[in-house]
Amino acid sequence: MPSKSDKPYLDISPEVEAALQDGRPVVALESTIICHGMPNPKNVETALQVEQTVRDHGAIPATIAILNGRLKAGLDNAEIDYLGRNGQEISKASLRDIPFLVAEKTDGATTVAATMRIAAMAGIRIFATGGIGGVHRGSEATGDVSADLQELARTNVAVICAGVKSILDVGRTLEYLETHGVPVVGYQTDTLPAFYARSSGFAVDYRVDSPEEAAVAIKVKSELALDGGIVIAAPVPEKDALTSNEIDVVIEAAITEMNRLGITGKDTTPFLLAKIAEVTKGRSLAANIALVLNNAKLAAQVAVASHA
Q1: Angle CA(122)–CA(90)–CA(257) in degrees, nearest 5?
Q2: What whole-number distance in Å separates Cα of residue 147 and Cα of residue 262?
Q3: Predicted pLDDT of residue 4
Q4: pLDDT-wise least confident of 93-97, 152-156, 240-244
Q5: Catalytic residue among 17, 30, 51, 151, which?
Q6: HSE (CB half, 13 Å, CA atoms) of 125?
Q7: Secondary structure (3-state) at 134
Q8: 206 forms bridges with which residues in the sheet?
Q9: What is the pLDDT of residues 255-299, one digit of tens each?
Q10: For the domain 10-306, what is the CATH code?
């Protein structure tokens, strides 16, 4: 594990540091979902429930954020509550934002890309999130591609997720990941999940059917010194899923309204998620919570299997 002197801007919580020193399983968790993914107090309730799910399945949770200019790997309940209460007033922090938030000693809720980088700094190799970012619809005109993809291409962290967010161009995202050598693995599925929906219709590269299989693949990739992450995609639980046709209609309408309002960049995802939740009368939010909890459970199981 990196020493504090090696990473002068990084604070690892005592619990997480002890687990890493002892060789016990740790799962990284992002904080954007707390500030930009759900309303308060549901965001705090969900974040604490996700942490408890990781604990219940044998691993230590390490929620990651930037607080007062410090990179944090492991938050206490008061820090999670602070993020939840301040919500969208907290900056959405991707890689480009990290040095400036640190220099200005301010706060940031970390995206998938930023969480991966800070997790790797801390020595954490398993990360649970909702869905990864990707190539945006209409990217041929806008060039809008999430920094998550480039981070997956270079940082050695396994990301357990519910696939690619439905609001994105799934096909182009998979092409990008293939070009950069990132394996996309289905957990008990042959097709890539699409966040709210259980299938995007696109095939995954490989399939695993147990946490132990996933752990072996991660171990071998590391031993081969193949840089970059691995995406392990688990479908949202069936009882909470929306159908692909249903969610596609809602997304298209939300994107049309977003374009009419001129919303771009890092504001697009929070706008679309909020609009989708409004139109689906909360069903999308329920699906979001269910899939995050499911991913946290699987990530803990994979982390435990990796330490067996």
Answers
A1: 120
A2: 21
A3: 53
A4: 240-244
A5: 30
A6: 23
A7: coil
A8: 185
A9: 889 889 988 877 777 788 788 888 888 898 899 999 999 999 999
A10: 3.40.1790.10
**Residue 146 half-sphere exposure toward CB, CA atoms < 13 A:** 31
Pairing of strands 70-73, 10-12: parallel
Catalytic residue among 72, 92, 165, 275: 165
Domain boundaries, the chain: 10-306
Range ranked top by mean pLDDT from 29-43, 67-81, 161-175, 278-292: 67-81
Among 70, 60, 68, which Cα is nearest to 29's? 60
289-144-179-153 Cα dihedral, nearest 10 degrees? -60
Residue 221 is a catalytic residue: no
* Helices 268-279 & 244-261 angle (0-180, nearest 10): 130
Instruction: For residue 17, indicate whether it is catalytic.
Output: no
Other CB atoms within a 10 A radius of the CB of residue 238 amount to 8
The type of residue at 91 is: S
Measured over the CA atoms of residue 283, residue 195, residue 244 and residue 190, the dihedral's sign is: negative
Q: Tell me the residue length of the chain.
A: 308
| C-beta of residue 64 within 8 angstroms of C-beta of residue 29 | yes
